[in-house]
Recover the amino acids of this structure.
């Protein structure tokens, strides 16, 4: 790597650690958040295009140090997609174009906070697919057969009590429980705004 690139890079890293020692992160924070999901389902049965859904829920932040925090969340996530013609052929259904999947999602994020106003985030997200005809306990029992495991990575801006985040999510689990001929995986972007109340 060119020395002209290395010197500014290490200077930035050192400055980030120095900045982390100069600001105070509360030991515990709690807040609410909401946002938009821009997602698609990867698989030949679905159209290769992104569609809009929404998310709403709560987050907490547990301080390990000024530089590192753990941020668990509980969110209601809606993912929308559009079925392709092959979906109709495989499942023998007609007049099905729009598909909506509703999840209770539990992200567990590691926050790297080099400066008070910004955090880089990464971690797993586990989702429980909701059945509208069942209660939350019954949905929870189905989690292992209908769950979705994803990885998230993104950035969060911390402006006073306001939290603005953008993340990319990629599904690791095959959510196709209907046929073994095709693998379906969620992927897309999540844009959110949160407000710290504690």
């Amino acid at each position: 790597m060119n020395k002209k690139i290395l010197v500014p890079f290490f200077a930035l890293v050192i400055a980030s650690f120095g900045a982390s020692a100069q600001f105070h992160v509360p030991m515990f924070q709690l807040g609410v958040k909401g946002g938009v999901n821009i997602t698609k389902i990867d698989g030949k049965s679905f159209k290769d295009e992104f569609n809009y859904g929404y998310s709403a829920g709560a987050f907490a932040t547990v301080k390990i140090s000024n530089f590192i925090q753990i941020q668990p969340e509980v969110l209601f996530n809606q993912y929308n997609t559009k079925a392709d013609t092959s979906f109709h052929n495989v499942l023998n259904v007609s007049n099905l174009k729009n598909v909506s999947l509703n999840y209770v999602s539990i992200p567990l994020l590691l926050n790297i906070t080099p400066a008070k106003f910004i955090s880089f985030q990464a971690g797993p997200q586990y989702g429980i697919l909701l059945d509208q005809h069942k209660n939350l306990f019954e949905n929870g029992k189905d989690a292992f057969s209908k769950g979705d495991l994803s990885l998230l990575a993104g950035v969060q801006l911390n402006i006073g009590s306001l939290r603005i985040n953008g993340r990319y999510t990629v599904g690791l689990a095959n959510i196709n429980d209907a046929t073994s001929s095709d693998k379906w995986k969620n992927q897309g972007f999540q844009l959110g705004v949160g407000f710290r109340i504690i």
Q: What stands out?
A: Strands lie at 28-42, 51-63, 68-82, 98-115, 118-129, 147-159, 162-171, 185-196. Residues 3-196 form a domain with the Porin fold (CATH 2.40.160.20). The mean pLDDT is 78.
